[in-house]
Specification:
Elements: E1 43-44, H1 50-61, H2 65-78, E2 83-84, E3 87-88, H3 93-106, E4 109-110, H4 117-122, H5 125-136, H6 143-148, H7 154-184
Parallel strand pairs: 1-4
Antiparallel strand pairs: 2-3
Helix pairs in contact: 1-2, 1-7, 2-7, 3-5, 3-7
């Protein structure tokens, strides 16, 4: 039996977020579709990883922040209700890792120890589109997008959104800490 989806009335007013940006030309550029003449190499996680480099660099700059962030990332990745919609006693570990690694992939971070064929096996196209919209264009996410991306309970959808936001934050921190470590040399 399908769950009835409650629609909450939300005003159809798109806020003008441009006023909060200093550089109006600054936008997400699709890593896979960037111009070929742009000299940006892929970010290989084995060359600069969160656990070996980012965590410790941030801890040196601001004591204990690396540990706090790592605890937060681990809590989100390991959180599970062992459910998926109406299914119970489900191990969602591979689904959560596929989601996390797909978000890193969107931002050009490759994990050599991860089998990316799992992403295409576990994450259907509509879900990947939702992930990309939330992580790259959050101002475009609608209530309808949220309600329709997967047939899950609201608590599970909230968890997925937290997973998306935390994976994006970790990706941003990886780029920041790698750049900072190169600058400090």
């Amino acid at each position: 039996m399908a769950h009835a989806k409650e629609v909450i009335a939300v005003p159809d007013v798109a806020p003008n977020l441009d006023r909060y940006r200093k550089d109006r030309a600054f936008r997400y550029e699709d890593f896979a579709k960037r111009e070929k003449n742009v000299n940006i190499s892929p970010f290989r996680a084995q060359d600069f990883s969160w656990h070996k480099h980012g965590y410790s660099l941030l801890d040196r700059l601001y004591p204990n922040i690396g540990g706090l962030l790592d605890t937060k990332f681990n809590a989100i990745v390991s959180l599970t209700y062992k459910t998926m919609g109406d299914e119970t006693d489900v191990d969602t570990t591979t689904f959560r890792l596929a989601t996390w690694n797909y978000i890193h992939l969107i931002f050009g971070i490759f994990h050599d120890d991860y089998r990316y064929d799992e992403v295409n096996q576990l994450l259907y196209r509509g879900y990947k589109e939702y992930i990309k919209t939330v992580s790259c264009y959050p101002e475009k996410v609608t209530q309808l997008d949220y309600l329709n991306f997967l047939d899950l309970k609201h608590s599970e959808k909230v968890h997925i959104n937290l997973l998306i936001l935390e994976a994006r934050m970790q990706a941003e921190l990886l780029y920041f800490s790698r750049t900072l470590s190169l600058y400090m040399k």
